[in-house]
Each structure stands twice: as structure tokens, then as C-alpha cells.
Amino acid sequence: MAKLMLALDVLDENKALKIIEEVNDYIDAVKIGYPLVLACGLDVIKKIKDICDKEVIADFKVADIPSTNEKIAKITLKYADGIIVHGFVGEDSVKAVKDVAKNLNKKVIMVTEMSHPGALKFIQPIAEELAEMAKKLEVDAIVVPSTRPQRLKRLKNIANLPIITPGVGAQGGKIEDILNELGEDDYVIVGRAIYQAEDPKNAAKKFKEQIKNI
Ligand code: XMP
């Protein structure tokens, strides 16, 4: 069975921790990004882990030169279990993060194709090469769009790596359209459709049940 990763893009620490308490039984991992960390600081990761003891992935889409990537990874991975990086900046930039992560026994997850409409112009044309690069660099997983199930399948096949896939819920992606492609090492990412729901616990429960019905 694939796993459910909550994208916790709220701007208030109390709200973030309350949601974690509510959905804890139904999620397998948490993805935090700039919205929460810029609002509350990296310490929020420790507070999340104190409540739910689940893997926390920092979605910072790191995209700089190797030496700067290295610094970002060193700080982030003191707190988080994994970090998301962009691949289009090149192998050396991704490798800088990978070296830090390897030393700390943490994960590096690389973006291939993004889920939003704007990704079609610049990222989609190079996404297959990025998936090949991810395979060569042996990153821990790739990010692929659930808004485009055929692309998800194609990129997963090329990289032959676990996937984490955003786009279900608010962006219009549907779990039933991607279920056949998902394995037990893969994560479906859901954000707004859970944390903006009237009842986040129930929303998370429903997504978890849908994932179970493979
Ligand atoms: P929603 O609210 O749309 O949240 O369920 C989705 C989460 O995933 C992030 N996101 C992406 N991250 N590649 C990524 O690395 C993507 O293509 C992508 N699309 C969405 C988004 O920032 C939010 O946290």
C-alpha cells in the first residue's frame, strides 16, 4: 500500500500542530515548506515530530550552486528527515545535497516534472532527462505529478525509483487515476484538501482509505 504525506502549508504554528494531532492516525509522513518555516522557523519540525513521530520532509526545492546547496542541506537536515531539490540546476548541485544527506543518513528527493499548468513550458520538456539523472545519482525518490497520470507512469518507469506525487485534491488530481502506478514505497501528497477541510481528520481518513483500496 502506498503512503499518505500531508503537505502542511499553513502559516500558523498552533494551527499546524493542531492539524497534526487531528490527522496523526491517517498520515504516514509530513511535508513542510517555505510557508510554514518562514512563518514559524525550522524549530517547528521538532514540534511536529514530538507530536506525531513521523518522517518530516522539507520541500525547499533547493536550486542553487553546489556550495550554497550544501549549506542549505546542512542546516535543513539537522531538523528534517529529507529535503526536496530541483534537478534542473545540474548534477553537481544535486550531488552536493546528496553528499550531506548521505553523511547524516537522510533522504534527498528530486523534482522531475511539476504538477501545475506552468510546468508544461519549461520543465516538462526536460523531465525525462531529469528522471534519468535522478536514477544515475541514486537519489532516494523523485517528485512526479498526479495531475498527469501518464507522465507519472513514464517518469517513474525511467527513474525506477520511489515517487512522491502532489496534485491530488485541490489541483484536480484523483487518487483513482494513479492508484495502479503506486507501490508501497510511494507517497501521495495531499495538502489543501486536508488542512482546509472542515474536518481535516475525516478528510485524511478518506484519502487513506482510498489509497488502501488498491
Ligand atoms: P496541495 O494543497 O495542492 O499541495 O495538495 C501540494 C503540495 O505539494 C507541493 N507541490 C509540489 N512540489 N513538485 C514539488 O516538488 C511539484 O510538482 C509540486 N506541486 C505541488 C506544493 O508546494 C504543496 O506543498
From TrEMBL:
Q: Which Gene3D superfamilies match?
A: Aldolase class I
**PROSITE patterns per the UniProt record, alphabetical:** OMPDECASE (PS00156)
Task: Please report the name of this protein according to its UniProt entry.
Answer: Orotidine 5'-phosphate decarboxylase
* Residue ranges annotated for the Orotidine 5'-phosphate decarboxylase domain, each copy included: 3-207
Recorded GO cellular component terms are:
cytosol
Q: Look up keyword rRNA processing and say if it applies.
A: no
* Record pathway: Pyrimidine metabolism; UMP biosynthesis via de novo pathway; UMP from orotate: step 2/2
Highest lineage ranks of the organism?
Archaea, Methanobacteriati, Methanobacteriota, Methanomada group, Methanococci
Query: What is the scientific name of the source organism?
Result: Methanocaldococcus vulcanius (strain ATCC 700851 / DSM 12094 / M7)
Q: What does this protein do?
A: Catalyzes the decarboxylation of orotidine 5'-monophosphate (OMP) to uridine 5'-monophosphate (UMP).
- Active-site residues, Swiss-Prot/TrEMBL: 59, 61, 64
The gene for this chain is pyrF
